[in-house]
Amino acid sequence: MQTVDFFTPIVDTPYEYGAIAAANAMSDIYAMGGEVAVRAEHCAFPPELPAGLLGEILRGGAEMVRSAGAAIAGGHTIQDKEPKYGLAVTGMVHPDTS
Fold first, then answer.
1. What is the DSSP letter of 94?
2. Closest to 18 measured CA to CA, from 86, 76, 83
3. Which backbone phi and psi does 12 adopt, to 5 degrees?
4. DSSP secondary structure of 47-91
5. How many CB atoms lie under 10 A from the CB of residue 62?
6. Which residues of 64-95 are buried (b: 16+ CB within 10 A; e: fewer)?
7. How confident is the model at residue 64, as a pLDDT?
8. Could you report the per-residue pLDDT of 52-88, keeping only the tens digit for each?
C-alpha cells in the first residue's frame, strides 16, 4: 500500500513539525492495518529559509521514521514561497488482513 501526505507548518518548532508530519503520514498506513516499510520525503522550502531550520525539520522526520523501524529512501525537494514537508509512505499488509 502507498500514501502521500504533506502540509505547511502547524507548530513553531521545526523539529516537532518534521516529527508530526512523519507520524501523520505513517498513520495512514497503520490505519489500513499495515506496517511501514519505506518512506520518501517531499519538501518545498523558500530559498531564504536558514539551512539550520531545514535541517531540524528533516531531523524530526527522520527520527520519527527511525523510531517506527522504517527507513527514508530518497525524496524530492523544490523551492516554494511557503514551507511544506511530508512523506510518501510504502507499507506492507498481509493479504488476509481486512
1. -
2. 86
3. -85, -15
4. TTS-HHHHHHHHHHHHHHHHHTT-EEEEEEEEE-SS-EEEEEEEE
5. 17
6. bbeebebebeebeeeeeeebbbbbbbbbeeee
7. 94
8. 999 999 999 999 999 988 888 889 999 999 999 999 9
Domains of the chain and CATH, by start: 2-92 (3.30.1330.10)
pLDDT of 95 over the 90 cut: no
C-beta of residue 65 within 8 angstroms of C-beta of residue 41: no
In this prediction, residue 37 has a pLDDT band, given cuts at 50, 70 and 90, of confident
Hey, how many other C-beta atoms are within 10 angstroms of the C-beta on 2? 13
Q: pLDDT at position 26, please?
A: 93
Alpha-carbon distance 25 to 85, whole Å?
10
From the list 97, 94, 95, 91, the residue with the least C-alpha distance to 35 is 91
